[in-house]
Design brief:
Catalyzes the phosphorylation of hydroxymethylpyrimidine phosphate (HMP-P) to HMP-PP, and of HMP to HMP-P. The chain is an alpha/beta fold and about 280 residues long. The protein is built from 8 helices and 9 strands. Helix 2 (about 60-70) runs parallel beside helix 3 (about 85-95). Bound molecules: adenosine-5'-diphosphate and (4-amino-2-methylpyrimidin-5-yl)methyl dihydrogen phosphate.
């Protein structure tokens, strides 16, 4: 049997298990990657909101990375909540040097939780912009793209397409998955931009309020699947397909009274629309 890839999440903790490190590790396991994790922050959080935040000192984020990477070869890395400019600077240094520079990297520029609570210092936005060109893929939602580009939020797919291109042109992103989940409508449409152009990625919108951690889950699915797929396009397509499956059975979990988690147990759907 082939060795599973090793995927690393550098992110914050969500005790309710729907987002952050907990979502990432469940996603890695479900999609066949061995999960490793470096914590940037502890949140006191449930499905209704965030009540507290305890950020790990940047020097200790560096020590976690140093010790892990001195021993373990990481195939793919997902960057989630980075909390402040000092942690972004540490992560940037690691991402620019071996061994992480040769791992497949996914930057989810987490700024605000689904509940509306802030997860990144205002002062760190500039630092995140500088991290953008180093990641193989960035996965902003509509609000995060607007902040990164310093303009108003896209309100339709045409604007998503324009902003995805601009994130490459103006910020130097290598590849962009601009998520349109918050646009509404019968389909959840994301936009993919890379060297070969811009394409849309559509899925039927699932009627559920259980969308806590969709962004975390999608970006960690990319870090789990990229070493197991031939290229980024097939990786993105399959990650979105699995996320849609995980959303479609989310209501059965009945975790919490707010925006509950997606169903990380969901089997990987086959091309015929069946489950494995
Ligand atoms: N109700 C839904 N049904 C299907 N897909 C959804 C739904 N809500 C969000 N998505 C998808 O989940 C992913 C996360 O998107 P989004 O909600 O925009 O980002 P974030 O979770 O970072 O705010 C995207 O692929 C988006 O299209
Ligand atoms: C620790 C942590 N990291 C990230 C998110 C964002 O979650 P979402 O994927 O819903 O945007 C979160 N709520 N908590």
């Amino acid at each position: 049997m082939a060795r599973p890839p090793v995927s690393l999440s550098i992110a914050g903790s969500d005790p309710s298990g729907g987002a952050g490190i907990q979502a990432d590790l469940k996603t890695f396991a479900r999609l066949g990657a061995y999960g490793t994790a470096v914590l940037t922050a502890l949140t006191a959080q449930n499905t209704r909101g965030v009540t507290g935040l305890h950020v790990v000192p940047a020097g200790f984020v560096a020590e976690q990375l140093q010790t892990l990477l001195a021993d373990v070869r990481v195939d793919a890395v997902k960057l989630g909540m980075l909390a402040n400019a000092e942690i972004v600077a540490v992560v940037r240094e690691f991402l620019a040097s071996e061994p992480l520079a040769s791992a497949d990297s996914v930057l989810d520029p987490v700024m605000v939780a689904t509940s509306g609570d802030r997860l990144l210092d205002d002062a760190a936005v500039g630092a995140i912009r500088e991290l953008v060109p180093l990641a193989a893929v960035i996965t902003p939602n509509v609000a995060e793209a607007a902040v990164l580009l310093d303009r108003s939020e896209a309100v339709d797919v045409a604007e998503l397409v324009a902003q995805a291109s601009d994130l490459r042109g103006a910020l130097g992103a290598q590849r962009v998955l601009l998520k349109g989940g918050h646009l509404g409508g019968p389909q959840a449409i994301d936009v993919w931009a890379d060297d070969s152009g811009v394409r849309q990625l559509a899925a039927t919108r699932v009627e559920t309020r259980n969308t806590h951690g969709t962004g975390c889950t999608l970006s960690s699915a990319l870090a789990a699947l990229r070493p197991q797929r031939d290229d980024w396009w097939h990786t993105v397509r399959d990650a979105k397909r699995w996320l849609t499956a995980a959303l479609s059975t989310a209501d059965r979990l009945e975790v919490g009274g707010g925006h509950g988690p997606v169903d990380h147990f969901a089997p990987f759907p086959t091309a015929a629309g069946e489950s494995e």
